[in-house]
């Protein structure tokens, strides 16, 4: 399904080790600190039960999960394989120590089941690491468009949507309502062991000087005003989340280059179809096999369309999105 848009996960065994005193994190062998005096210590947040230090982390067995706008992502088993975490090596991030640490402290203070926990961070002049929770069920993009043969029923999709909406609302309420995510899409929404949606990668956009480079697959999530203003807001986050809702309903990749979207992004394609009163044609064929859920799907469609309103001020706030999604069952 839309194979051009898929990025296969690369399970490549590696060692996160330094090349000099400590070994090299990069499989290409080029991560070498130039200034040892600038090396910091890994900083854990309160309540962490982990006993490993930076040397343990960098020497641990790792799998490369992929490379994205911010750098490389690794699955790392530490503490004699008793703990598994996700390590983001921020290769393309240029940021001062103070700004980096302040952002990490804000993100690390957020403890909520629908926001992937930032467990630790590391800063040096040449290298920055962010250590997050690991989710064995993977992310929503992989489940919807991957080759694992996983089919999500309606209840599962609704549960993921509600969980991710809660996470977005928690983010928007943090740091005196100044915090936004900036890169919400199905690949940054992971699924926990109970099947709930959890938003990941929080804080990464905030520490960059510019927005993540838009890839073919991520362009469909970008709010239209972002192109002009180059600044993320809570309303641009809501737009991106609205695209995720439409993705859940249609099973289609949001990219404007998708063959069956007529060269439109997903939100524009759905507006076009709905305007012709062909609403039933937008839903994923897998969902249409289920009985008695059409009214609920139409409700979610209406919520998704409200989120992707072209005028940012016409979009609901995250907390309102949560309530509307939770009310879907009670309204049918």
Task: Describe the structure in your own words.
This protein is α+β, with helices and mostly antiparallel strands and 332 residues long. The chain has two domains: 3-133, Phosphorylase Kinase, domain 1 (2-Layer Sandwich); 140-326, Transferase(Phosphotransferase) domain 1 (Transferase(Phosphotransferase), domain 1, Orthogonal Bundle), CATH 1.10.510. The protein has helices at residues 54-59, 97-108, 140-145, 154-173, 226-229, 234-250, 266-275, 285-288, 294-307, 318-326, and strands at residues 12-15, 43-44, 61-67, 72-78, 83-89, 118-123, 128-133, 189-191, 197-199. It has a seven-stranded antiparallel β-sheet with strand order 1-3-4-5-7-6-2. The protein has a two-stranded antiparallel sheet with strand order 8-9. α4 (154-173) packs antiparallel against α10 and α6 runs antiparallel to α9. 42% of the residues are buried. The model is unreliable at 1-37 (pLDDT under 50). Residues 59-332 form the Protein kinase domain. Keywords: ATP-binding, Nucleotide-binding.
């Amino acid at each position: 399904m839309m194979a051009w848009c898929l990025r296969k996960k690369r399970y490549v065994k590696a060692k996160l080790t330094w090349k000099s005193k400590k070994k090299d994190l990069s499989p290409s062998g080029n991560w070498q600190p130039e200034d040892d005096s600038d090396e910091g210590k890994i900083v854990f947040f309160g309540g962490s039960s982990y006993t490993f230090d930076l040397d343990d982390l960098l020497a641990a067995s790792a799998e490369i999960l992929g490379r994205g706008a911010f750098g490389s992502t690794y699955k790392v088993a530490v503490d004699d394989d008793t703990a598994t975490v996700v390590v983001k090596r921020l290769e393309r991030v240029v940021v001062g120590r103070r700004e980096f640490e302040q952002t990490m402290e804000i993100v690390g203070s957020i403890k909520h089941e629908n926001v992937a926990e930032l467990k630790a961070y590391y800063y040096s002049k040449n290298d920055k690491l962010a250590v997050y929770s690991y989710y064995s069920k993977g992310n929503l993009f992989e489940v919807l468009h991957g080759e694992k043969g996983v089919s999500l029923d309606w209840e599962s999709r609704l549960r993921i949507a509600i969980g991710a909406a809660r996470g977005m609302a928690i983010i928007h309420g943090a740091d005196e309502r100044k915090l936004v995510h900036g890169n919400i899409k199905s690949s940054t929404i992971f699924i926990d062991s109970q099947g709930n949606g959890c938003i990941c990668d929080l804080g990464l956009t905030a520490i960059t000087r510019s927005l993540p480079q838009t890839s073919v697959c991520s362009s469909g999530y970008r709010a239209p005003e972002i192109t002009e203003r180059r600044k993320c807001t809570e309303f641009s986050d809501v737009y991106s989340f609205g695209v995720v809702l439409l993705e859940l309903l249609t099973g289609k990749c949001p990219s404007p280059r998708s063959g069956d979207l007529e060269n439109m992004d997903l939100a524009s394609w759905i507006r076009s179809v709905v305007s012709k009163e062909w609403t039933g044609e937008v839903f994923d064929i897998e969902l249409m096999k289920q009985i008695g859920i059409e009214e609920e799907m139409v409700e979610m469609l209406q919520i998704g369309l409200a989120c992707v309103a072209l005028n940012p001020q016409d979009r609901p706030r995250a907390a309102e999105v949560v309530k509307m999604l939770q009310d879907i069952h009670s309204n049918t």
